[in-house]
Amino acid sequence: MKDSTRNFQGWLLFAPAAILLLAFTHYPTITTFIHSLYTNKSFIRPRRFSGIESYESMFSDPIFVKVFINNMWLALGTIPTSIGLAIIMALIVNKAIPGRGLLRMAYFTPTMLPMIAVANIWLFFYAPEIGLIDKTMAIFGFESTNWLGSPSTVLPSIMVMTVWKEAGFFMVFYLAGLQTISPELEEASKLEGSSRWNYFWRIQFPLLLPTTLFVLINAFLNSFKLVDHLFVLTKGGPDNASNLILYYIYETAFAFLDISYASALTIFLLALLALTALAQFLFIEKRVHYR
């Protein structure tokens, strides 16, 4: 009787989280997948089953291919840079230096700002002729550049803003990881005559690999969930040079009213992120956790 009561109480505690997970994750995923298998419904044309037609159209869509490549370049450009800067910042603020608390706050402040606010700040930086960047470069004799209006500079400009926003967030995890490393290891390394770089590369970095794995997966997921800043900065332009998958899904669903194709794009994105998480557990995690 006690066991059944305990099990019932356990299910009651589990029920709110399970209901929220089913209502806001699993149910929308299933309905989105079903929508992707049917054509769009209109007043004059009923919805009909189309199978994988939307998925076939997706891979033959040149805009989708361009958007996907943009997102991959964004991930490749921001993830290693953000992680590298996060490690450097964590190493700096982990030392007993004057003003360490203020420095930590300065590094973390961009993370606390909403993405819309960050986009407006950088919109002022990138404004041609009157922006902070162009004003500074004009002092050294450089000409004005339309950073967000040129296909060759718009995606790198967004990468810089993304790194500025996320590096401080990842720094917190590395700082926590550094503080779990015993100071005795550093003392032993000094007694052995190892350099600071050798101590970091041979001792600290291997011990931070679990943290790096966690940050890496989060950084990859974040790079495919960026959408807020595009509403303020570029609207995906010019000529889709800064368009990303999530913004393209929004455009397809709410601007072009193509719910079937937008559903197929959403399922593709979910599958991509799910495969990334699966790769973490099957291949990467075993290599970085010491057992």
Largest sheet: none
The strand count comes to 0
Oligomer class: single chain
Q: Total helix count?
A: 13
- Total of domains: 1
Proportion of helical residues? over 70%
Structural class of the helix and strand makeup? mainly alpha
Query: Stretches where pLDDT falls below 50 for ≥5 residues?
Result: none
Q: Order of helices and strands, N to C? A: HHHHHHHHHHHHH
Key traits:
single chain; 291 residues; mainly alpha; MetI-like fold
Could you walk me through the main structural features you see in this protein, from its secondary elements to its overall organization?
- Residues 68-278 form the ABC transmembrane type-1 domain.
- This is ABC transporter permease.
- Belongs to the binding-protein-dependent transport system permease family.
- It is a multi-pass membrane protein.
- It is found in: Cell membrane.
- 74% of the residues lie in helices and 0% in strands.
- The chain has a single domain (61-288), classed as MetI-like (MetI-like fold, Orthogonal Bundle), CATH 1.10.3720.10.
- The radius of gyration is 24 Å and the shape is globular.
- The protein has 291 residues and is mainly α.
- It has 13 helices and no strands.
- The model has no long low-confidence stretch (mean pLDDT 88).
- The longest helix has 35 residues, at 2-36.
